[in-house]
Each structure stands twice: as C-alpha cells, then as structure tokens.
Amino acid sequence: MSTLTIDHVVTSGTFSLDGGTWDVDNNVWIVGDDSECIVIDPAHNPEAIREAVGDRTVKAILLTHGHDDHISSAGAFRELVNAPIHLHQDDWMLWKAVFPDADPDVAIADGDEFTVAGATLKAIHTPGHSPGSVSLHLASEDTLFSGDTLFQGGPGATGRSYSDFPTILESIRTRLLSLPEETVVRTGHGDSTSIGAEKPHLDEWIARGH
User: Fold this and answer.
1) In what order do the strands lie in the sheet with 85-88?
2) Neighbour tally for 181: CB within 10 Å
3) How much is the pTM?
4) First and final CA of the chain: distance in angstroms?
5) Which residues pair with 151 in a beta bridge?
6) How many structural domains does the chain have?
7) Are 8 and 27 within 8 A, CB to CB?
C-alpha cells in the first residue's frame, strides 16, 4: 500500500479585491499517494501544479475560499486534470466575479468528507475571512489545511469586503482551537504553525482587533 504524502508547491501571482491589487505567494497542498491525490487551492500556476501531481489521478480540487488568488487558476487546472472543483456555496458570488459563465462543480458543506489514499479530509466551515471559508482537517495526519482563516501569528485578514473580524474569531475559537494541540496548521500563505502554538494568543488577537 502506498504511503500518504503531503506535497507543497508555492506559486506567485496577485490578489485583487475592492479596487486594489497585491503581489502574493500562495501555498498549494497536494494530499495523496503514488496513484491518486486531492489538490487544495491550485493558485496562479496550473502547469507547475500539474507537474507536481505527475501522473496521479486528481480526485478533487478543494478550494478553501473564493478570493481570486485562490481560484483564478482553478478553471485552467480543472481542464488540465479533469477533476471537480468544490467550493462552499457562500463564496460562489466571489467565484462568479472571476468566472461569470461557469460554476464550481460541487458546493462544500460543513462536515463533508473527502477520501484519498485511504485517508479522510473533513470540511470545517470557518467563515470570517470570507463567508464560505472552510478549513480541511486531516485527522489521521494531525494536520489542518486552514486556507486564510488561521496563520502563524493570528487570524486571516478581515479588512475587506465580505469579511468580518468577530466572525473569524468565533470560527477559530470554536472550530479550530478545539482541535488537538499537536495539529499542524498548513496555511494558505507563509509558514505552517500548530494549534498549540496559536491557542495561547487568542486574547491578544481580540485585544488588537485583527
């Protein structure tokens, strides 16, 4: 039986919202074994991600949320690997801003499970950074793919449209910080962290307001 692996590709591009554009580096996560995988947030560079996938079958493309840096290359990647795109319904309005003539294939719901290489990813609805943000818990590997909900040093940004700081705090406090402290948090941007490393700082985040 093949061993489950978590591969990581960093891609570079831009993020645009509310009339502004910023340069960003995104983490793309590939979970699977030698024969099949799931790709999380295939940002910016479909060909590089396709190369990292190799000849494996892509069972699903999971989008943690609908901001354009995370989704704008998803359509092209879908065509390259012929896999369905999953995105929470509450972020389809963000998708429509990028792809007005095409929908995601499947709406992610809280609690949905995705099986790959004998392991299971469970969707946790964690709104705040965007209404339809989800985190993906891979319990067998003590791993959480947090998208832009939780980073090393605190919550994701909530200063732009469709985002809300009290909401993201509640998502993190009730849905993520309750996970085992040894859980590795693999983020949408930047370095990974852990639930145990971030949990003691909740009151600091509340006090600073972001």
Assistant:
1) 5-17, 20-32, 36-40, 57-62, 85-88, 106-108
2) 13
3) 0.97
4) 45
5) 154
6) 1
7) yes
In sequence order, the β-bridge partners of residue 108 are: 88
Structure letter (DSSP) for residue 172:
I
Identity at 116, one-letter amino acid code: V
Q: In the structure encoding, which two tokens stand for residue 24, read together?
A: 């960003």
Q: 84 — phi, psi (to 5°)?
A: -75, 145
Residues 6+ apart with CB under 8 A from 189: 24, 25, 26, 27, 148, 151
Distance separating alpha carbons of residues 186 and 136, to the nearest angstrom: 10
Q: How far is CA 65 from the centre of its chain?
A: 6
Q: Which residue range(s) make up the domain with 92? A: 5-208
- The CATH number assigned to the domain holding 137 equals 3.60.15.10
Q: Is the pLDDT confidence value at 1 over 60?
A: no
Distance CA 136, CA 62 (A): 9
What does the pLDDT look like over 109-150, one tens digit per residue?
Answer: 999 999 999 999 999 999 999 999 999 999 999 999 999 999
Structure tokens at 178: 């309750």
Helical (H) or strand (E) element with 152: none
